[in-house]
Amino acid sequence: MKKCLMLFMLLCLAAAAVAPYAARAAEPSSNPGATSYVTPISDTDTTLDGSVSYKQQFFQVPAYWKVGQVKVALDYKASPLAQDKLSSVTVSVNGTAVTSFRPVASESARQRMVVEVPVSALIEGTNTLAIQGHIVSGDEQVQICTPEYYADKWFQIYKSSSIIVGYTPKPLASAIADFAARFAGLDTAAEQDRAIAVPRDADPRELEAAVYALSGFAKSSGTGGKGIPLLAYGLDDGDIAGKKLVVAVALRDRLPAALRSLVPDAGLGDKAVIRLVDANGQPTLVVTSDNAGLLIKAGRLIGNAALLEQLSGPVKEVTERTEVASPVPDVTKIVKLTDVGDQITGAYHRTKDYFVTLPANRSVAEASKLSLRFRYAKNLDFDRSLITVLVGGKPIGSKKLTEALADGDSINLTIPKNLNLSGNFTVTAAFDLELKNASCMLPQDQMPWAFIDADTVLQLNTKDRTELLFNNYPYPFLRDGIYNQVGVVLPEARDADTYRTIGNLFNLLGQYAAGNAGEVRFFGPDASADALKDRNVIAIGSYADNPVIRKANDSLYFKYDAEGTGFVSNEKMSIDEDYGKRIGSLQLIASPYEPGHGLLAVTGADSRYAYLASKLIADESTMWKVYGDGAVTDMDGNIHAYRFKLEAAPDQPSAVEDILEREDVLAFTAAAVSVLLLVLLSLILLIRKHRRKRRDEK
Q1: What per-residue confidence (pLDDT) applies to 609?
Q2: Smallest Cα–Cα separation from 597: which of 555, 520, 540, 536?
Q3: Interior CA angle at 337 toward 336 and 343, to 5°?
Q4: What is the value of pTM for the model shown?
C-alpha cells in the first residue's frame, strides 16, 4: 500500500511538471494567421578572417506580407584568443545598425545570439543584412603599437544561422497582378501551395498554353523554392483541392463544371479570357477560350511577367490584336555592372559582387573585356593597397592604388579564354584598403572608402555551346534564352506522373528562358517523322507506349531489352535484369529525324520511373548531378551519369576566323591593309612619274 501511495505521488508530481508545457503548447497564438519564413544567412559554415570582417546576405519581404516581427538567429564561434571586452560584432539591416554585442570566446562550444530587428528598418523587396566583426586578440594591457597578426582573429558563422521573418499575408486583392505575385512568391513556393491544372486528357494546345504560363511563373519564382507542379483535373483532384493558389488552363468546354460556371464571358470564339475567381475559397486564375490559338496567346501573356504585374483588375481579355511578346534577349552586349555606382567603406579587404546573366548554352568568347572605373580615399597606405578583379571566383588581374589617381582610376582587363565561363557568372571587385599605422588606430565605419563608377562596363562576346551534353543543358531546347522549336511527344496512356514529368521539365527550362518567345508543340504517340523533322524532340514514356522511344532504341545509350520491359547492361554500367525494370533514364542523343537537332528520352519501364528521371532536371539543385549524355536513377536516390559520345577534338580556328571573331584585330588588320595599299599606290605613281620624266628627257 505504501509503495502504491508513493507511486501515485510520483505520477502526480510528473503530471504537475508536464502540465505547464502542455498548456503552453496548446495556447492559441496572439495572431492565428501569422506564419514565418526563414532565410539562411549562409549555405555553408563561413569564417570571417581578420580584425575587421564583413558578411552580407539578402532577404526578401514581398509586398503582400504584413511583417510583425523579424529576428536574426546567429550561431557562431569566436576565436578562443579573442578579447571579450574589446571584440565586438555589429548587426545592421539596410544600413541601420540593429545591435552590437561582445562575442563569447570559447574553445569548442558554439554560441547563439538572437537579435530582434525593428520592422521599421525593413523595405519592400530586397533587404540587406550585414554582420561586421571586430575581433581583438592579445593582451589588452599592451599600449605599444604592434604589427597586426590576422590568423588568430576569426569569427565563424554556422550555416544554421538564419533570418526569421514573421508575417501575416495581406488579403488578396481583386487583381491578377496580386494573384501572380503570390503565386510566384517565395513562401508559396516553399510551402508548395500552388499548381497549374489542365484537363485529364489535355489537348496538345492546352498543354502548350500551360507550359508557357508555367515557364513565366518558374522564371519569376527563381531557383530558391520548389517547382510548380502540373496537375490534371480527374487525376489529381485531391492534390489540386489542397493548393492555396491554382492556375487553370483549358478550352472552355473542357473546364470542370464548377469553374465553367464562374466564367460568364460570352463569345469566346474571337478572344481568350484570363479571369481571377474564387472557387470555394480557393483563388483560381482561369485561362480559357473557345479558340485554341487565342488560348495559347493567353498562355504567352501569363509567361510575360512584365505584362502580368500590370494587370490591376480581375479580368484580362486577349484578342488577335493584343501584344504579348517579351523583348528578344540580347546575347552579345555591353553590360553595365552598376546603374548609379557603388560605394565600399571600411579598411582591409572589401568586395563588391556583380551577377551577370547569360544563356546556359553560351560561353564567354575570346576578346571579352572589362573596363572598371573607380576612385578612392587618399589616406591609404599606397604601398599595400590594391584592387583585384575576379570573374567566376578566379582572379584575372590586379592594380596597385596610387595617390595620384585616387580621384579617377581605372583597370581594363581582357577575360582569359581558358576560364571556360558559360551561363550565369559573377564579376567581383575586391579592394584591399590598407591604412598606415593601422595597429595604432581604432577602426572607423566610414574610412577609408572606394567608389565604383556607373560607367563601369563589361564588353561581352559569346559563342554557342552546341554539343549534345547535359553539361550544356538546356541546349538544344533553349537557344539564346528562347524556346528552340521544341516538340514534346507524349505516351499513349497518360497518368498523373506523365503530367508531373512535363511540369518538372518545364520548371527548369522556364527558369532559363529569358522570354516567352520561341515555340513548344505537343504531339501524341502517332506523331509523324515530317512533323518532328525540324524540331528538338522530348520523348516521354516507355518502350511500350511511346513509338519515338521504341524506334530510337538502337540509338539509345541505355537500351531496352527485346521485350521492352527494362534496360540492359552497356559498356559503362552492368544492369541486373530486375533492376533494369526499376530505374528511370535521361538520354540526350542526335535526332533521328534531321541532323543538327537533338532528342531527349525521359524514359522508364513505367511512368513513375520516367517521372523519377525527370526530377533530375527539374531544378538547378539536382542538375549538377547529371553530366555527359546518359544517366539513370532509382527509387533509393542513386544516380549514375556517363558520357558516351566521344570527346570532339578542340577546334583549331584558322587565322582568318580568329581575325573575323576579334573586332580589335579586325580593325588593326584593315588599317594595316589600307596603309599597304596606299604605299603600293604611291610606289606605282612614283614609278610612272620617273618613267614619264625619262621619256621627256629623251
Answers
A1: 97
A2: 536
A3: 130
A4: 0.81
Contacting residues for 686 by C-beta, under 8 A, at least 6 apart: none
Contact 146, 441 (CB under 8 A): no
CA distances (Å), 508 to each of 186, 207, 229, 632, in order?
Answer: 16, 17, 12, 19
Cell 528521371 belongs to which residue? 613
What are the beta bridge partners of residue 151? none
For residues 309 and 125, give the distance between their C-alpha atoms in angstroms, rounded to a whole number: 15
Is there a domain that residue 259 lies in? yes
Contact in structure between 389 and 370 (CB atoms under 8 Å): yes
What number of CA atoms fall less than 13 Å from residue 530's CA on the CB side?
A: 0
> What does the buried/exposed string (b/e) look like for 490-519 if buried means 16 or more CB atoms within 10 Å of the residue's CB?
bbeebbbbbbbbbbbbbbbbbbbbbbbbbe
Rounded distance between C-alpha atoms, residue 524 and residue 493, angstroms: 10
- Tell whether 488 and 637 lie within a shared domain: yes
State whether 358 and 312 are in the same domain.
no
Query: Nine-digit cell at 664?
Result: 580589335
Domain-located, residue 5: no
**Each residue of 5-28: pLDDT tens digit?**
444 444 343 333 333 322 222 333
Residue 199 and residue 283 share a domain: yes
**239: domain CATH number?**
3.30.379.10
Q: What is the pLDDT of residues 419-428, one digit of tens each?
A: 888 778 899 9
CA distance 302 to 247: 10
Query: Are 181 and 63 within 8 A, CB to CB?
Result: yes
C-alpha to C-alpha distances, 593 to 445, 479, 491, 555, nearest whole angstrom? 65, 19, 18, 12
Type of residue found at 20: P
Identify which of 161, 52, 155, 53 has the alpha carbon closest to the alpha carbon of residue 106. Answer: 155
Selection from 488, 518, 493 nearest residue 614 by Cα: 488
Assess whether 488 and 625 both reside in one domain: yes
The CA distance from 169 to 34, in Å, is 8
Domain holding 667, by residue range, is 657-697
Count of domains observed in the chain = 5
Beta strand extents in 308-347 (DSSP E only): 315-318, 333-336, 342-345
Say how far apart CA 510 and CA 471 lie, in whole Å. 18
Q: Are residues 385 and 484 in the same domain?
A: no
Cell of 199: 484537363
